[in-house]
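Researcher: Here's the sequence for the chain we discussed earlier.
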Amino acid sequence: MPVGPTGCNAARGDDEARSSGGWQVSLMHGQSWSYLHFEDGTEPVMNQQTAVGSLGYFFRSGWSVAVSGGGVFGGTVRGDGHDLGFGPGFLVSVRVAWRWLEEDGPVPFVVTSLSASFTRSAIASGARRSDVVLGTDFRLGFTVGYTLFDILQIYVSPRVFGGPIFIPGLGGRIQGRDRFFVQVGLGGALLLPAGLTLFVDGSPGGERALAGGLAISF
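Model: Thanks. This is the structure I predict for it:
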């Protein structure tokens, strides 16, 4: 599933951007580790490596929307009788966010976001023929952050999520889900001149994930 920031950055990260709106293009590479539970009772661990491009727009009202697309470039499903490897695949997602509290003096900014994503990738075990794994994800995030020295933006972002995953099994395709429906993201963004932002986002608890990338606003 896609991992990374949940739309906390206003375009260019400044007052001018928030008053005029603006576009933002970002590129991100990430990896996630999901603890799964399948309907056959098995509980393997799935990890995925993804590269994602995103196009978003920040409205003057505080709302933002973004669409993303990218590829799955590796990963495994292992443990509890499973030993599968990911082949090439793709993912698409859409996100809507609302920045309902602006940063002002000691007051942090607060953003609520909602996203939906879909992945499809090849998966195989040893000499077994390649098959297809499908995944869906619906995610609600609540992000609280603050900007230090007008250049460093830090935030904490608890998220809840859910959605089925369908993976090949010995008797056909089996359905699974995450064992944990929560993720606590911690992140930072370096706000550079010319609308450039470098960011990193990680989740040490629940569904674990780590992502980093760059964005440019205009």
